[in-house]
Amino acid sequence: MKKLSLIVAALLVLSAAGCGESAKENERASVTMMMADAGRANKSDNPIIAEFEKRLDMDIDVNLIPSADFTSKFNVMAAGGELPDMTLFSNFDYFNYASQDLFLELDDMLKDYPNLNAIDKSYYDAVAYQGKYYAVPKVNPVQGKNNTVVRKDWLDKLGLAMPTNLEQLREMYNKFTYGDPDGNGQNDTYGVSTTSEVVASVFPDTFMGIFGAHGIQPDYYHLEGNEVVYGAISENYKNALQYLYELYSVDKVIDPDIFIIKTDQARQTFVQGRFGSFTAWWSVGPQVCWQRMNMPAVSPGAEIAIMPAIQGANGESGYRSKSAINGTVCINAETEYPEACMKLLDYLATEEGTILGLYGFEGEHYTKETVTNTEGKEEVLYTRTELGQKEFDNKWLDIMSMFFSGTLANNAYYNDALLMEHITAAENAPLYYNLFEGLTSDELQRYGADLKKFEQEWMIDFITGKTPIDQFDTYVEQWKQKGGEEIFNSLLTVYNGLNNTSYTAKLN
């Protein structure tokens, strides 16, 4: 009887535990999401997020981290075991953490989520780690994303044609700086600056065209015959740094705050007329500065135009191509709600979820119209209402689409001629491609982040004159010693293995 009592008691305990687990599974899920802010600012009563919560029967908490602080913040959270349920990483950055067992393996789950499962397998393969899927790829197939924006009214006032080569570009910068283009009688303008904070993870976008005119993009690998060259240790890079040094330290036509200014302030200074050109993502000029920040009202008479990619002495030109993978979403391996995370991503991948996340509510924030284009194909044109534009300008309306979205059917476009002009120009710009795009190695994960910081520090020192350009060989040798050579050789080994090639590394 004593034994029987113990068995019954044990069964009752197990039964109670089982009931508790069932209750846990049936309770309303609460999902936390984290991403770099990308110029957005959420609000606690965001009605778009509330609508997602209603449609999906879950609570959603979106945590926006200042872009420059994202990596350090994630590292602290990972070390403390306090990761959110889902994290959006830029491009292939999640590979820096793929070996740490932080993320949920998705292979067996994808088949239950048709919209995620419908994403082309090649995109999943591009972000696979050791043959398994730990990330959902955020896909944007168009690889041209950048434009150079110029104050056209300044060109006209100073009698300048749109520059096409490096000599004409330098002349334009000088005239924009010293020719009083704003007509206020003061020497208070610069030829060029940035509209995005300069961070260690990527070379400044605003110098992209200048690097391209010198035949490289610093953080890209490319082929020269049978040898692979890394831009940031090449002779062409040294020549580009010399050109930028002359602009910054000799001509003094680059905004001296370019390496310390924050994104919002930088964009405000362009809108206010402090500098005359920049290179950035296609939307910054027409959508952010012109519309969201109302540049026509702030700087009456201002006009912006797109400058074609500048050409170097040998005809080289182009911007960085952007991989079709422009981000990955990873789910915390310890999340309490893996199914809810997948359900949210799957809905964001639908056209309905994409439209809600990007535009808001039909009739309130946008209207839509189906038209037939010149090729006889139907297109859906979306137009923001006055309220929709206001809330978009307030930086919170499209937060969910920034985290993840699908591809709109019927080639949906903005019903806005200025935006389409900038989109089309970016799509058709000449591009540089990274030979090792999407590849990773243990060496890259070990040394990559610190090496990027090292590259940026030396770049700034060369341009500002703190370090003379004749120290370039010293920089290259230190780059090798800090893991650059190991990263280069490891990625080359991976590439040759995948492509059955026998390329060698050019390290001198």
Short description:
The chain has 508 residues and is of the alpha/beta class. Helices cover 42% and strands 15% of the residues. The strands form 5 sheets. Strands 2-1-3-11-4 form a 5-stranded mixed beta sheet. A 3-stranded antiparallel beta sheet has the order 8-5-9.
Protein described:
The chain is an alpha/beta fold and 508 residues long. It folds into 2 domains: 29-140 and 324-407, Periplasmic binding protein-like II (D-Maltodextrin-Binding Protein, domain 2), CATH 3.40.190.10; 146-320 and 432-506, Periplasmic binding protein-like II (D-Maltodextrin-Binding Protein, domain 2, 3-Layer(aba) Sandwich), CATH 3.40.190.10. Helix content is 42%, strand content 15%. The protein is built from 19 helices and 16 strands. It has helices spanning 2-26, 47-56, 70-79, 114-117, 121-126, 152-158, 166-178, 208-213, 235-251, 263-271, 284-292, 295-298, 338-348, 351-359, 386-393, 399-403, 417-427, 442-464, 472-499; strands at 29-36, 58-65, 86-90, 136-139, 146-151, 221-224, 227-230, 277-281, 304-307, 319-320, 325-331, 366-372, 378-384, 413-414, 431-432, 504-506. The strands form 5 sheets. It has a 5-stranded mixed β-sheet with strand order 2-1-3-11-4. β12 (366-372) and β13 form a beta hairpin. α9 (235-251) packs parallel to α18 (442-464). The chain is globular, with a radius of gyration of 25 Å. The model is unreliable at 1-23 (pLDDT under 50).
